[in-house]
Design a protein that fits this description.
125 residues; 3 helices; 0% strand; transmembrane helix
């Protein structure tokens, strides 16, 4: 699980570097907001590789922990509990993003996650 946490940190650093480069390309290439950037989608491959690998290490480690700690009669319950916790993580994350979006729209601010990232940057909020 420690390897998974390390890989998440590497992924976040990679995401930050790619986003800085994307912003520079968007400022240079996109004079109109309707235009798209010339930056290739393949710049995201490395960051998604790190995120995917970290998920494998984290979820397999978590599943192994649940299976190792549960008695033989409750192994399937441990696996179910592991998958339920992963599902809850995803739902809470989605709920938080939805709440922040609704709050930011009600205060007449620009949206937190705009429809066009070249028009409004997340780094300026």
């Amino acid at each position: 699980m420690g390897t998974g946490m390390t890989m998440v940190n590497i992924a976040m650093i990679t995401i930050g570097i790619v986003e800085c480069y994307r912003l520079k390309c968007a400022q240079k290439d996109c004079t109109n907001y309707g235009e798209s950037s010339s930056l290739s989608i393949f710049w995201q491959v490395l960051q998604y590789t790190f995120v995917g690998a970290s998920g494998v290490f984290m979820y397999l480690g978590q599943l192994e922990f649940f299976n190792a700690q549960a008695p033989n009669e409750l192994k399937s319950s441990g696996s179910t509990l592991c998958m339920t916790s992963i599902t809850l993580e995803n739902h809470v994350s989605s709920l938080l993003v939805t709440m922040v979006m609704k709050i930011s729209i009600e205060d007449h601010m620009s949206r937190w996650i705009p429809g066009n990232l070249n028009r409004d940057h997340l780094d300026k909020h």
